[in-house]
Design brief:
This protein is of the alpha+beta class and 155 residues long. The protein has one helix and nine strands.
């Protein structure tokens, strides 16, 4: 025969397990909230418009424009455009990752019916973001550098 104490333990164990799960969930939620707050601080440094240039190896490049704005739930969104042979090319943002002052932005675009994507990897220092890019297109891949400077705020 089981003792009465064993019967009580059978009832208490699931309750203790449930309480432990709730405590872990609250700890995880607190850590996630702190990470989100840190990410929001990081994102604030990127907010604004940046203008500069992209330059392939040994070739003429063009203008590059990046705009970062806080979106829904304080998640940063990015808009990008660049010029190619004097024509402005609009892009779609495929992904944006920020870690500290480092950025990885992937944009999709199309020129003369050829779809491609470009990955911009860079670092923000004061009001300048610069780095390298890697583009993939049906014809060939292209690599180069880019540098943009925060545009003056219009008043």
């Amino acid at each position: 025969h089981p003792t009465p104490a064993f019967g009580v333990m059978k009832t208490v164990r699931p309750i203790l397990f449930l309480l432990a799960c709730i405590a872990n969930a609250l700890l995880a939620l607190g850590a996630t909230t702190q990470q989100a707050a840190a990410a929001t601080g990081t994102q604030a440094a990127f907010v604004g418009e940046f203008v500069g240039e992209w330059r392939p190896r040994n070739e003429a490049g063009g203008e590059l424009r990046l705009k970062f704005t806080p979106g829904k739930d304080s998640v940063l969104s990015a808009e990008a455009s660049f010029t190619f042979q004097g024509t402005v090319v609009r892009t779609t943002t495929e992904s944006l990752n920020l870690e500290g002052n480092k950025i990885q932005l992937v944009i999709g675009w199309e020129i003369d019916g050829t779809a491609a994507s470009t990955q911009l990897i860079g670092e923000l220092k004061n009001d300048v973001i610069e780095g390298t890019y890697d583009s993939t297109a049906n014809e060939r891949a292209a690599k180069g550098t880019w540098k943009v400077t925060r545009a003056a705020v219009k008043t």
